Amino acid sequence: xxxxxxxxxxxxxxxxxxxxxxxxxxxxxxxxxxxxxxxxxxxxxxxxxxxxxxxxxxxxxxxxxxxxxxxxxxxxxxxxxxxxxxxxxxxxxxxxxxxxxxxxxxxxxxxxxxxxxxxxxxxxxxxxxxxxxxxxxxxxxxxxxxxxxxxxxxxxxxxxxxxxxxxxxxxxxxxxxxxxxxxxxxxxxxxxxxxxxxxxxxxxxxxxxxxxxxxxxxxxxxxxxxxxxxxxxxxxxxxxxxxxxxxxxxxxxxxxxxxxxxxxxxxxxxxxxxxxxxxxxxxxxxxxxxxxxxxxxxxx
Length: 300
Description:
By secondary structure, this protein is of the alpha+beta class. The chain has 11 helices and 12 strands. Strands 2-3-5-6 form a 4-stranded antiparallel β-sheet. The protein has a 3-stranded antiparallel β-sheet with strand order 4-8-7. A 3-stranded antiparallel β-sheet has the order 10-12-11.
C-alpha cells in the first residue's frame, strides 16, 4: 500500500498490537467465538469522531444520508465508545432476537465486554462510557436514500432506545449490581439492525478502539470486500463526506486516513488497498469474516 506512513507508539504497545493481530489472523472470528455485527447504516455513514458543537449531525455517502438528532441538554454520541456499544448491542440483538437487552451483572463486567478497562474519576473511562451511553440512547436517526435518475426517494425514522435504565456505583463500578441496567431498542431500530448488519471481528474492534476513524475504516472495508468484484477508486472528497465531515480540508482528512491504515491492515492483512493523491484504490480481497458456506450455496 503506497502513500501512507505508519504512526506507532512505544515498543511495548507495538508488540502487544502485533501479538493480538497475529491471534486474529491465526483463528477466524467464528471459531474464536468473536463474530459480531455492526449496523449497516453506521457503516454507510458514520458517527462523529469528536464532540459536535451542535445537537444535529448529518453525513452522506452517495445517494445515502444519515441524520442524527439528540436533546441539546444531552448531546450527540461521538468517538470510539458508542461504536463499540453499537457493535455489542447489534451482536446481542442478533443473538437473542429480542429488542430488550440487559447490560450485565456489573458496570465493570459490561466495560470489559467492550474491551475497556474501568477507571473511576472525573475523566476516567467509567464516566466517559456512562456519558456516551446516555448520549447514544437519547439519539434519534433519520436515513434517506434518493435516486434522482430513477425518480425515487425513501427514508426511515429510528429511535435507538425506546427505553433505557442505567445503574451504577459511582465509587466502585465492580460492586453495584448492574442487572437492572437495560435498554429496550426501538422496534424500527431493532428491525433495522437485525435485518441489515455487517459481520465483524469483535477482537479487531477492541484492538482498534483507540481511533474512531480506524474502527470506521475497518468495518467499511470488511463490508466492501464482501462484494467487491473489480478495482474501484474512491475519491478523497467522497471519503471525507462519508467518514470525516469533522475535517474542514480534504487534505487534513487524507493525512489522518493514511495514518490509520497500517493499524487496519495489521488486523486485516489480506486487504489490497492503495492510496494516491486522487483517492483510495480498492482491489478485490478475501473477506475478513469467512462464510460458513460457499457463495453458490447461499443463493447469491
